């Protein structure tokens, strides 16, 4: 069980540590109790948050409305909710984590 991942009912909650301004957007492993995501978007005018939510929507093959930022709008530490009934092993596979 991963401390940064909670799957309950039709919701997946991810606790993330986001590093904007990277070369490419990718999962970078665990960072304490968070999953670290490197983002190829600058932390300017909400561009990093928009890029993160769009990237997660693509990863989980859901619409952009199914991905919402619950906490951390102006922080590197973010909590994201995804409307999906995936189980933990499926989420880990979609994120490329073993």
Automatic annotation (TrEMBL):
Family: Belongs to the UPF0235 family.
SMART domains referenced in this protein's UniProt entry, alphabetically: DUF167
InterPro entries reported in the protein's UniProt record: DUF167 (IPR003746), YggU-like_sf (IPR036591)
One Gene Ontology cellular component annotation held by this UniProt entry: cytoplasm
Record-linked Pfam families: DUF167
Protein name: UPF0235 protein DFR38_10352
Gene3D superfamilies the UniProt entry points to: YggU-like
């Amino acid at each position: 069980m991963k401390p940064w991942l909670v799957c309950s009912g039709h919701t997946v909650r991810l606790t993330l540590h986001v590093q904007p301004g990277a070369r490419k957007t990718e999962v970078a492993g665990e960072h304490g109790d968070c999953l670290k995501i490197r983002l190829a978007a600058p932390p300017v005018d909400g561009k990093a948050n928009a890029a993160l939510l769009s990237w997660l929507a693509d990863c989980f093959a859901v619409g952009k409305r199914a991905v919402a930022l619950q906490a951390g709008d102006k922080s590197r530490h973010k909590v994201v909710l995804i409307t999906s009934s995936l189980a933990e092993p499926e989420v880990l596979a979609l994120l490329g984590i073993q």
